[in-house]
């Protein structure tokens, strides 16, 4: 049973979270608000004519590929098109933001031993969980309001704009509550992240199975992605669906508090089994240990992107046929993907978009060194015969090669599946693989940034995420608006040649690779010279 004293110090903990995340939270909030606003602005720019919008609406409504991935379009208005386009993607990002903030301020803090220090003061047992829940719920609600305001200033209906913002926030708040439970069940932040990532993907797969209006339409009600879609902002505005969100959020939050009261500090409800007294022969090197640490994440990414590549390859012909009937859409695709024809431009656009996700991967993999040091695991490794450079290089092998492997598998699966349906297997697969590989120097640049920050100032290592967020915003803004060239040149992805459009490999790509290598070397050398955190 919870008592009032369990929540003592919650306000102070909220202030501490806001103080620590005074840069990260505003960036996440602004990014989400701009993302939805830019999508709406692009639709206003492309489909200002009602007749054109109706034609696009009919095409999208009858296209099984789009309907299975994003749900059916409910209306031909700008607002309804925006809600349809951002529904799945923005929900996913809101979920990731919620998972990231909750784990960062609960399980990660507990794992690092900071909560033991905090709880020794006048702080109640549930104060940390309460502060994380309140802050992350608040971030979602602020994003919802800003999304609504961003749509209103573009002339969209005020009520429906807020409904769209609140539907995305409801999805985010649901994952706040689920993560609140997950961090009680697991003993490490890594396990909690894997569990929540799996849930986000599993719910999306359930949503795909219930995509149509036939016998299996009820399946979509088993997924929160389906709930967001069924709210229908700018069309049906089914407000009663928010009651489903509220019921699950309240129930899961109560469950999180109960589980928190049932376990010891540092432990999880699901306890980990102790390992054997002696390591197997397969774990008797730094590289083998690094493989053990990285293999779960690598396997997850390989499966997801191989499946995604196959799916995209099979659907490219359908999508490009639809795009070809709309001159305005053709111009946009050519603008994003280069003057290479609609199909090749579409491939280029997908590679450019997804390459930033692979940069996300390499940052996670590189900062594995940081998390191992924070948990004081690195100390145990480094007291053996393993040197710092060996430990760093062993982990960097996976930070460098793993995203390259995932990118190659994604490009090959996309090229092979597209080649099979066009009877042009060998040529297409090789061309797409080549066009994908040139993105590696830009991806590895983030390996270098992360390693350099970790080696020089480990407390600033999280700035790697800030750097990637800035680049994503620049690329996103640059796609839809005419901004200054010097700003676009800040992004390494601006300098990637579009081989499918006939570009050739030139000096900027080589410079990117050189800078990435130098940053990695700088980070390794600095890591050898500085003190270990402790």
General description of the model:
This protein has 534 residues and is an all-alpha fold. Helix content is 74%, strand content 0%. Helix 9 packs parallel to helix 12, helix 13 packs antiparallel against helix 15 and helix 15 packs antiparallel against helix 18. It starts with 9 loop residues before the first helix and ends in a 5-residue tail after the last helix.
Distance, first to last CA = 36 Å
Biggest pleated-sheet summary: none
What is the tally of beta strands?
0
* Structural class based on helices, strands and sheet pairing: mainly alpha
Number of helices: 23
Oligomer: single chain
Radius of gyration based on Cα positions: 24 Å
Strand content: under 5%
Mean pLDDT metric: 84
Helical proportion? Answer: over 70%
Listing every helix as H and every strand as E from the N terminus to the C terminus, the arrangement reads HHHHHHHHHHHHHHHHHHHHHHH
pLDDT < 50 runs, ≥5 residues? none
Name the shape in a single word. globular
In short:
This protein is mainly alpha-helical and 534 residues long. It is built from 23 helices and no strands.
How is the topology of this model organized?
Blueprint: H1 10-20, H2 24-46, H3 50-61, H4 64-70, H5 78-105, H6 107-111, H7 114-119, H8 127-152, H9 158-185, H10 189-209, H11 224-231, H12 241-262, H13 286-324, H14 327-337, H15 342-366, H16 368-374, H17 377-382, H18 388-422, H19 425-437, H20 440-456, H21 463-480, H22 485-488, H23 507-529
Helix pairs in contact: 1-8, 2-5, 2-8, 2-21, 5-8, 5-9, 5-10, 8-9, 9-10, 9-11, 9-12, 11-12, 13-15, 13-18, 14-15, 15-18, 15-20, 15-21, 18-19, 18-20, 18-23, 20-21, 20-23
């Amino acid at each position: 049973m919870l008592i009032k004293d369990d929540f003592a110090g919650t306000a102070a903990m909220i202030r501490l979270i806001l103080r620590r995340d005074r840069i990260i939270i505003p960036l996440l909030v602004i990014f989400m608000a701009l993302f939805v606003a830019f999508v709406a602005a692009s639709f206003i720019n492309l489909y200002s004519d009602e007749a054109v919008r109706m034609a696009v609406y009919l095409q999208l409504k009858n296209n099984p590929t789009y309907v299975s991935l994003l749900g059916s379009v409910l209306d031909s208005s700008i607002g309804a098109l925006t809600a349809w386009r951002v529904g799945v993607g923005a929900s996913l990002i809101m979920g990731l933001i919620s998972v990231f903030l909750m784990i960062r301020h609960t399980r990660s803090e507990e794992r690092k031993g900071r909560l033991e220090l905090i709880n020794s003061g006048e702080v109640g047992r549930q104060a940390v969980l309460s502060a994380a829940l309140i802050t992350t719920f608040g971030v979602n609600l602020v994003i919802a309001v800003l999304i609504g305001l961003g749509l209103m200033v573009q002339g969209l209906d005020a009520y429906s704009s807020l409904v769209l913002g609140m539907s995305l926030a409801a999805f985010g708040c649901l994952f706040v509550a689920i993560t609140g439970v997950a961090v009680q069940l697991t003993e490490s932040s890594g396990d909690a992240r894997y569990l929540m990532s799996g849930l986000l993907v599993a719910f999306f797969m359930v949503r795909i199975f219930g995509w149509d209006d036939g016998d299996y339409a009820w399946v979509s009600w088993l997924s929160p992605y389906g709930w967001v879609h069924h709210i229908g902002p700018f069309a049906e505005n089914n407000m009663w669906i928010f009651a489903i969100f509220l019921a699950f959020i309240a129930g899961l939050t109560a469950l999180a508090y109960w589980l928190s009261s049932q376990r010891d500090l540092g432990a999880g409800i699901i306890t980990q089994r102790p390992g054997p007294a002696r390591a197997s022969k397969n774990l008797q090197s730094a590289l083998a240990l690094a493989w053990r640490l990285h293999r779960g994440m690598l396997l997850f990414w390989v499966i997801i992107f191989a499946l995604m590549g196959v799916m995209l390859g099979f659907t490219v012909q359908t999508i490009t046929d639809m795009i070809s009937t709309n001159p305005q859409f053709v111009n946009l695709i050519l603008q994003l993907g280069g003057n290479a024809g609609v199909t090749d431009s579409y491939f280029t656009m997908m590679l450019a978009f997804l390459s930033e996700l692979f940069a996300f991967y390499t940052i996670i993999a590189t900062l594995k060194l940081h998390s191992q040091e924070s948990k004081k695991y690195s100390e145990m490794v480094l007291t053996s015969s393993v040197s710092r450079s060996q430990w760093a290089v062993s982990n960097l092998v996976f930070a460098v090669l793993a995203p390259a492997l995932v990118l190659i598998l994604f490009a090959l699966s996309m090229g092979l599946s597209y080649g099979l349906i066009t009877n042009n297997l060998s040529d297409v697969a090789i061309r797409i693989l080549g066009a994908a590989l040139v993105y590696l120097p830009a991806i590895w640049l983030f390996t270098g940034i992360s390693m350099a920050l970790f080696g020089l100032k480990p407390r600033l290592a999280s700035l790697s995420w800030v750097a990637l967020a800035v680049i994503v915003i620049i690329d996103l803004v640059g796609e839809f608006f005419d901004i200054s060239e010097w700003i676009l040149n800040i992004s390494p992805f601006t300098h990637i040649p579009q081989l499918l459009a006939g570009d050739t490999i030139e000096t900027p790509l080589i410079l990117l690779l050189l800078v990435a290598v130098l940053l990695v070397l700088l980070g390794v050398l600095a890591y050898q010279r500085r003190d270990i955190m402790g």
